Amino acid sequence: MAQQRKTGLGKGLSALLNDNEDIRREPQNGPVSEDRINRSLGSVNPIKIEDIEVNPFQPRTEFDSQALEELAESIRLQGLIQPITVRRMSNNSYQLISGERRLRASKLAGLVEIPAYVRSANDQQMLEMALIENIQRENLNAIEVALSFQRMIDECNLKQEELGERVSKNRSTVTNYLRLLRLPPSIQASIRDGKISMGHARALVNVAEVEKQLFIHQEIIKKGLSVRKVEELVRMLNTDDKSNNQKKNTHPKSFQFQKIEDDLATKFATRVKLSVAADKSKGSIQIPFNSEDDLNRILELLDW
């Protein structure tokens, strides 16, 4: 079973669902036999809303109340067009896999029953399905995406490359989202609330000192700085820092070694310090990390 799931994971959410295309819709009256449970998996069934419990693995934390009301009104007029997805817990008990927004709106609309796909999934698959389904939403903010990525890495025991395959994103995109979680909580909150953009945040990640990150963040909020302006400010600060470091260094690095240092910083997504002796016969490379997770990320890049 585990072998089959691993094979299909790179195909996204649909590959995680163990559907049987030949399954027919089953009536809900009367006792449910084990055979009927198995045959109902993969079909669309009307299920009582009161029999559905929410997904404990739901990564989405906020639902727009006005949007829910608008969806509820649409459901009152036209019914629910897209079924939710659940897994059967017992004969009359189900757990939501995806579609919590539709479920909430259906409750507001006063529905008693809701159409649902019935799936067979263990907790690992439930988590992956919920995370992938939410990541693929266009209105998910960058911090929610980053937290979902981190949960998939931590709780599903994935490497960044494997994660990228599951969500159909390249590794650099995954890395850029994960780097947002290294920012101070106040800046993460601004990203979540839409006060600053993903572009602003990516520029701030390249600032080594938290104090400077917070200063630039406040300037963005107060002055409405564009992403380009912030990138220029970050470059200027980093240039000043390099200049000051070179003044302290008796033996400034050559262009060749400076390029190596810059290339390493790009590879590891953190500032790397390359120290070289005057005769270039020896030296050292320092790769700083900000947390245990950051260290594991660097070790992964080193194939440790």
Keyword list:
ParB_N, DNA binding, chromosome partition, 12% strand, 7 strands, 15 helices, five-stranded mixed β-sheet, 53% helix, elongated, two-stranded antiparallel ribbon, DNA-binding, single chain, ParB/RepB/Spo0J
| Sequence of secondary-structure elements | HHHEEHEEHEHHHHHHHHHEEH
Fraction of residues in helix:
40-55%
- As laid out across the biggest beta sheet, the strand order is 1-5-3-4-2
- The secondary-structure class comes to alpha/beta
Radius of gyration, CA atoms, in whole angstroms: 25 Å
Which fold name fills CATH's third level, the topology of one domain? Conserved hypothetical protein from pyrococcus furiosus pfu- 392566-001, ParB domain
Q: How many individual helices?
A: 15
Distance between the termini: 29 Å
The dominant shape is: elongated
Strand fraction? 5-15%
The counted number of beta strands is 7
What is the CATH architecture descriptor of one domain? Alpha-Beta Complex
- The CATH first-level class of one domain comes to Alpha Beta
Residue runs with pLDDT of under 50 for 5 or more positions: 1-41
| Mean pLDDT over the full residue set | 76
* Main sheet properties: 5 strands, mixed
Summarize the structure in words.
This protein has 304 residues and is an alpha/beta fold. Among the domains are: 23-120, Conserved hypothetical protein from pyrococcus furiosus pfu- 392566-001, ParB domain (Alpha-Beta Complex), CATH 3.90.1530.30; 249-304, no CATH class. The protein has 15 helices and seven strands. It holds the Pfam family ParB_N. One of its GO terms (molecular function) is DNA binding. Residues 45-135 form the ParB-like N-terminal domain.
